[in-house]
UniProtKB/TrEMBL annotation:
One of its GO terms (molecular function) is protein serine/threonine phosphatase activity. Pfam families: PP2C_2. PROSITE patterns: PPM_2. Residues 279-331 are annotated as: Disordered. It comes from the Bacteria. PANTHER family: PROTEIN PHOSPHATASE (PTHR47992). Residues 9-278 form the PPM-type phosphatase domain. It comes from Rhodopirellula islandica. Residues 299-314 have a biased composition (Acidic residues). SMART domains: PP2C_SIG (SM00331), PP2Cc (SM00332). This is Protein serine/threonine phosphatase PrpC, regulation of stationary phase.
Length: 331
């Protein structure tokens, strides 16, 4: 018997207490093998659709920026384009071995780059959308693997055995300064550079996007959380872990409570959170669908959680960058 991911996920987005509109978007989707029947001698209805087993679960959070209409358009367009590319160009159903796994990761990076290029093209061609951009954090779960693709300062957390681990890196100037030794970690959250992003889809940035990618081996009872910075500016890892422990499998109540906490603490930004409890469900095996195997990483090894991209700036480059008249994308 093979195992496939059983869907147990919930998401919610909220405008917050200060904003006039919501520029965040989220997506929870189940990917399946399917076949549409057009004509057959079998006792099947024409134009009927047959579905095979689940291929995996897709989770996405996007946080738009660039003004009211532009921010909404950026996050909408990013997810719309992402879905179209996923359905038509990414080989979700390949049996992944080590070689195919690396090719799959490259296709995920290319997917983010294509979406980035799409946003840049529209922002340059439409005055009201000029400079629009969005963060994007995507999780694709094909049991027991999880692939995370990321750009911006939305986040993906993995909660396991009473520990909460941020898998993604905030692509802000403040984080770069901390990593370069130019700022103390405790000063990062309150820094003016914590809202300045150097890596987003679209925006005023460079043509080449840096796609951060992680691979993680999931275990039973893991919890995966994706969220925008409207949540994380108020909810730290300890608070997130406390809420997850409090609500257990009631993930709908969990998302509601996290939104309530962020709004109660100020709610200055849009707030979005997606929670998933991936589980292995038995699926019928066949000679054409052998068990998949691929080298995976462990949550306990810090080195395994480093992104595939190693793009960074030196402290001198950051200081020069911060003093330039043209800054990266600021919320």
């Amino acid at each position: 018997m093979n195992k496939e991911a059983q869907i147990h996920a919930a998401g919610r987005t909220d405008v917050g207490q200060r904003r006039g509109d919501n520029q965040d978007q989220f997506l929870i989707a189940e990917l399946r093998k399917s076949m549409q029947i057009h004509s057959t001698s079998l006792p099947l209805d024409k134009e009927s659709t047959l579905f095979g087993g689940r291929s995996g679960q897709l989770l996405v959070v996007a946080d738009g920026m660039g003004g009211h209409a532009a921010g909404r358009r950026a996050s909408n367009l990013a997810i719309d384009h992402l879905i179209a590319q996923l359905l038509n160009n990414v080989h979700w159903f390949l049996h992944l071995d080590e070689d195919h796994d690396e090719a799959f990761i490259e296709s995920l990076k290319a997917l983010l780059q294509q979406t980035h290029t799409k946003l840049l093209s529209e922002s340059k061609g439409t005055a009201e959308h000029r400079g629009m951009g969005t963060t994007l954090t995507l999780s694709y779960i094909v049991w027991p693997r999880m692939y995370v693709v990321h750009a911006g300062d939305s986040r993906c957390y993995l909660i396991r055995n009473g520990k909460c681990k941020q898998l993604t890196t905030d692509h802000t100037l403040a984080k770069q300064l901390v990593d370069a030794g130019g700022m103390k970690p405790e000063d990062e959250a309150g820094s003016r550079w914590s809202n300045v992003l150097w890596n987003v889809l679209g925006g005023h940035g460079r043509n080449d996007l840096i796609a951060e990618v992680h691979r993680v081996e999931l275990e039973e009872n893991d919890t995966v959380v994706l969220c925008s910075d409207g949540l994380t500016r108020y909810i730290d890892e300890a608070a997130l872990l406390s809420v997850v422990n409090q609500y257990g499998d009631d993930i709908e109540a969990m998302t509601d409570h996290l939104i309530t906490l962020a709004n109660g603490a100020g709610g200055v930004d849009n707030i979005t959170v997606v929670v998933s409890r991936p589980r292995a469900a038995e699926a019928p095996s066949s000679q054409d669908d052998p068990p998949r195997s691929v080298p995976l990483v462990s949550l306990d090894d810090e080195s395994d959680l480093q992104p595939d991209s190693d793009e960074s700036m030196s402290l001198e480059e950051l200081q020069t960058f911060a003093n330039e008249d043209t800054l990266p994308d600021e919320r």
